[in-house]
Structure formats: structure tokens, C-alpha cells
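Project standup — Tuesday

K.O.: blocked on the structure for the chain from last sprint. Re-posting the sequence here as requested.
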Amino acid sequence: MILPRIIVVLGVAIALVGCSASPEASPSPSPLSTAELAAQCADAAAGIVDAVEAVVAEYEEPAVSPTATPEPAPTQSADTLADAVEAARLRRDELGCDPEAFAATLEAGLAAVAPGTPIAEAIWRRASASILGTLRTEAGEWILTAEEDIRDAVARAAEGTTIVLPEGIIELDSTVVLLQGVTFRGAGRDATTIRSTAPEAALIVATASLVGLEDLTLELAGADPASGLVAGPSASVALKGVRVTGAKAGEAGLGGAGVYLSAEGDEGSGRGTTLEITASVFDRNGWAGVAVAGGHRVSIEESAFTGNGEVGILFLDSSSGSVSASTFADNTVGLAATGAATPTWLSSTVTGGSVGLQMDAAAAPIVDGIRISGSGSAAVIYGGESGGSIANTSCEDVPFGIVVSDAAAPTLGENSCQLARGPS
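H.V.: unblocked you, prediction finished:
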């Protein structure tokens, strides 16, 4: 699974196309021949293209381990790019290059760059837009037409932009990487669908700014393992009125999550809520509807998790946060926590599947007001040395109610569930 490195290099490239020399720097007539002048102007433009290629090359090796920690973005080539743009500006003005010819040469050179990974492609698009002067400078709503490329819109959007998507199906065959905070807003969960056949991930969040999805469906329809939205330890994501469906799981833990916020240990902690989900649906995802790791903290309300291959919601490492007023149906496990996770699960319903709630390792969730029915193996399982507390929970039509391993030590309140001891 691709994991993003937080990108910090793209504010350095200053728009070059369309700028003319300052009045104080008007060049003297060039002693060069027309052919020599054209060649030197082309060399000046080529210096910028070379610098863009150097930045892009630093993102050509994606991290594919599901537990890899995103690394800080390199900055040396970013400085080189800024220097190249400024040097080209000075050289263009010194030579008196024809602005239109210079712009055409630069645009053609940038268009010929061939990124090999989704993050490298996003860097290339964003840097090209910055240099060519096509970046939007103000946020607000950008109403996208069916003919416009969502990847170009993302590359040109200002921080904080809401990209309003049209009704219908938007087909994507490559990953969209978000380098700045934007929100995608559709015409409704049943009206706008982003259908992705991209391998590994449909959307990658590679920014520390808030990224949002609203009123749309994100459908994974490719043959390769892929997740819906993947983000790293510095990410913040909000979903409202969204459906994420069809994520395909592969071998070695690749793909299969509707939303996966990755990190290790307690990375990402101390920032408050980093994943907010309201009135959304996660179904038919091969691994998990939602998985959070590291120190990510969630707030999930009034959402539905149905038919996800292994688990509806999974808390790993030191992750935390609350899940409330939600439904879980026919997931192998409804809600699960492992590592040292400390989530709070409130006032929700779990039906079908194998296990309603499952805790392992040193996880210590607070469980209150959960209604569990029809689980094939057990309503609740406390494994490992897990703890926390459980109260006001009911278990119906299950072979076992609350199963507690020998080493687990949850605090048991008033519950309508039979208690059983199990092996550690």
C-alpha cells in the first residue's frame, strides 16, 4: 500500500511564464544571431525543466509496506528548482527572449517529463502549474465540469478550495494525490461517483492540511489490490455523506481498506481529532471499512459498515477516539482494537458476522450501549491482556456472550450477556 510522504517543496517555484523584465532591467539589443539567441533562450528554459525532473525523481520510489513510516520530504532539489526559476528569469530578461517562444519551449519541456509514481506525478503537475502561472491564488468553490481532469484541478487548486464535482461517474485510472488541503463535494452520495481502477489507492493524502470528501461515492473497481483513501501520520481527513465501497485486499496486507490512516506507535497524536466521519457508508471493502493506526484519533457518528471482509472498524497501535450511533452488519468482526488502542464505542448496533467486538494485545476500549445479535462465534472477545470496560451491552442469538481470556482484565458493568472464560 502506498504511504505518502508529506510534501513541503511546492511553495518555492515562482511563476515565470507571463512575467516580463522590470523597466530598470531592459536588455540591450543582443549581439547574437537569431539562431544563437533561440538556442540560449531554449537552454534557459531547459534548466527549469531539469530542476523539475530532479524534484520529481525524489518521489519515484513509493513506500509499499503497510506499516512504513512516511519520511520527511527532501528539500535540496526544491531549493534547486527555486534557484533555476530565478536564474532562468534573469537569463531570459538579459537575453531579451521572445516571451511567447520562451513560454512555448518551457511548456513543451515540462509536458515531456514522465513521472513514474502517483506522488511524483502530483509533484510534476503542481510544479508545472506553479511555473506556468496557472495556479489559482484564491480558495472558494471551483465547479468542475465533466470534461475537466480532476488531477489537473487538484494540481492547480489553492489551499482550502472546495472542488464541486458534477453528477454522474468520474472515471479514474490513476491515483489522485492531494498535496494541499482541498474538499471534494459531490451532488449526493447516489448522484456523484468517483470510480477508480488505480492500483494501491484511489486517493492519497500527502498534506498536513484538512482534506474533505462530501456527498459522493468513492468506488474501487480495479483488478489490483487498492484502498480508497490512504493518509499518513500528519494527515487530517473529514468525510460527510460519503460511501466508500469495493476496496480490494491483496497479499502481504496490501489494499482492502475503505479509509486507512497509517502511522506507527503514537505518531500523529496530540493533534485532536484527525479523522471525522459523519453519516457515511463503508461496504464491501476486502479488509476494513476504516482502519486507523499510530496516534490517530477519530470521531465517527451515524455511519454504517456492511459486508467488509475482515472488520468494520479497526483501531491499531495507540489510536483512539469515539464511534457512536452507528450500525455494523455482516462484517467478519464489527469493531476491533489491538496494540494499545483506547477507543470509545457507544450506542451502536452490531448484527451478523463472526464476532461483534474483539480486543487483543493491550487494547482498552470503553464500550457502552452496544446491541449485538447474530454473531456466529461470540458477541465480544477480550484476548491478550486487553482491558477497558463494557457496560449496558446486550447480546442476542449468539453462541457466546462476553468471552474473556485468562490474561485479559476488562471492567464489567451491567450487561445482558453471558460471561465465559477463554484461553489467553
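K.O.: great, moving the ticket to review. The CA atoms of residues 14 and 131 lie 6 Å apart. Residues 1-14, 18-26, 63-75 have pLDDT under 50 and may be disordered.
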